[in-house]
Design brief:
homodimer, Phosphorylase Kinase, domain 1, Aminoglycoside 3'-phosphotransferase, Chain: A, domain 2, 9 helices, alpha+beta, five-stranded antiparallel β-sheet, 315 residues
């Protein structure tokens, strides 16, 4: 369940008077998402999603909301925050920072084929190109520095062999600087469950709350690690080729990116191994986290190390 | 037909490189609209409408495009202009000012019932409320001054009885100042063919190219004259009541508006009688105009004069 803070019809109806979207007709909690409370909101003038931010610092939210607005304005199917009558996106409801966004059509596809991967590559490039004209900056909250710090926090919980593996990867990544690669705004969490498909089209890319400025290639690696791997974590060559070609058609890779690809695939796997280790061993009090298996991303990391970054980035 | 300026696949594909919406997949001319050339555009990342402005001065377009963006940002289902990679809405294609907008779902309903009219009233109020925080100003190009000027241009073409009727209405309206009423951004052309219905919802309000600042009540009157009249021009009391109640729930009418209602209904009818007279008697060279029957709005004006503004605005 993902309604941690209740909202009453009466409270929401009163809050909606700050907006220009008509009268409240229906309010339904949504049982998905692990960080925020989400609701479907239907008014006389449309269908929206209401999000109450349970744990994210209010000061970090404008970056995410303005990014979503920017990408929507550039024609990409992302939830567009709704401005209230004072032209503000962020309000307060039931004591929490709250935002209304447009409701997008579609469902996740958990077993994508090459056609899906090609379109995901094109979409990721579109997000990166549109993000280049976005004026705000905020770092990737799960970037290189966080990975080092997180490893230091979790390593004492690990058995010897796993700790050695983690230490070795941290040492490898310390010799490698993602900041030398083309930078931009990355989604940083473009997993299959964050994309809604409306037939053959991408109806929506959701959950921008890990977005930040980092190496664009890091985003490609996060995406490939999820969309192009089998249940065993092995990459499917055809799907990787489709995703990378879809991406490169809009933004060709640089020579530096081609050289860095093996290391970046590993950095992207490490990031999710670490966050899952932390959720598993050190869940923070007051946070409601769906604990996912850290072993899945330990395995993916090991496979990427062994494969040496193959399949390679296209020329 | 409404493709006056051809666009080739190759030209559009090259132009789309300025955007972040992927590769061109399909381009189709649209046979609707009388002022612009319109096309459905499908890319790898979404579905859009391309408009080439055939006759409108380029300097007037930013007001309309930024208004549409503003209303979309406020959660209303209007075509949202797509920003290019330089963050601009307005470009140039085939030598014409050109814009891409989001494609909205739905079809026009030409025989609306009270439920449609209630929702249209709510939508019109939503447009007016959201418009209050819009920063740009541009007058209603078919406002009071235009009506006087247009009457002077067309009256010599009319037979005596029709000219006397027009002169009488111009004299009546000259004694009445719409600027005393609450002002704001009005759509000014919210006819049934400018609204797309997606089931019970309004999927889209289109054609903002007559929008401008004027009395909000003028917009209500334009809308009532179209949505609530039978083929004979007579108002249907139940539909009028539904539309006005839907509107007043979000923005209650003022005492000044209630007093002015009969005159404003007449002003709104006069505006369309005049434009149709001008299109009929003085079509401008080089403009492609679908000539509509001026007699329809002469009859509507006469009926509004006789009825004295009934049904009245709700308290």
């Amino acid at each position: 369940m993902s309604v941690f803070t209740p909202v009453t019809d009466a409270d929401l109806a009163a809050w909606l008077k700050n907006y220009a979207i008509g009268r409240l007709d229906d309010l339904q909690g949504i049982s998905a998402g692990v960080q925020n409370s989400n609701f479907f909101v239907t008014t006389s003038l449309g269908r929206y999603v209401l999000t109450l931010f349970e744990t994210m610092p209010r000061a970090e939210l404008p970056f995410f909301l303005h990014l979503m607005a920017h990408l929507a304005r550039h024609g990409l199917p992302v939830p567009a925050p709704i401005a209230n009558r004072d032209n503000e996106y962020l309000g307060t409801l039931s004591g929490k920072p709250a935002v209304l966004v447009t409701r997008l059509a579609g469902r996740s596809v958990m077993e994508p084929g090459t056609a899906h991967c090609s379109r995901i590559g094109a979409m990721l490039a579109g997000l990166h190109l549109a993000g280049m004209s976005f004026g705000r900056k905020q770092g990737n909250a799960r970037g290189a520095e966080w990975r080092q710090d997180c490893a230091a926090r979790v390593r004492s919980h690990l058995p010897d062999d796993e700790r050695a593996e983690l230490d070795a990867e941290i040492a490898f990544q310390a010799g490698f600087d993602l900041r030398r690669l083309p930078q931009g705004v990355v989604h940083a969490d473009l997993f299959r469950d964050n994309v809604l498909w409306d037939g053959d089209f991408i109806g929506g890319v959701i959950d921008f709350y890990f977005a930040g400025v980092d190496a664009l290639l890091f985003d490609v690696a996060v995406t490939v690690n999820d969309w192009c791997a089998g249940a065993d974590g092995q990459l499917d060559t055809a799907r990787v080729a489709a995703l990378l070609a879809g991406y490169a058609e809009a933004r060709p890779f640089t020579a530096a990116e081609r050289a860095a690809w093996p290391a970046v695939l590993r950095a992207a796997a490490l990031r999710f191994w670490l966050s899952r280790l932390e959720d598993f061993h050190q869940p923070r009090a007051g946070e409601m986290v769906l604990v996912k298996d850290p072993g899945e991303y330990r395995r993916i990391l090991r496979l990427r190390v062994e494969a040496g970054g193959l399949p390679a980035l296209p020329l």
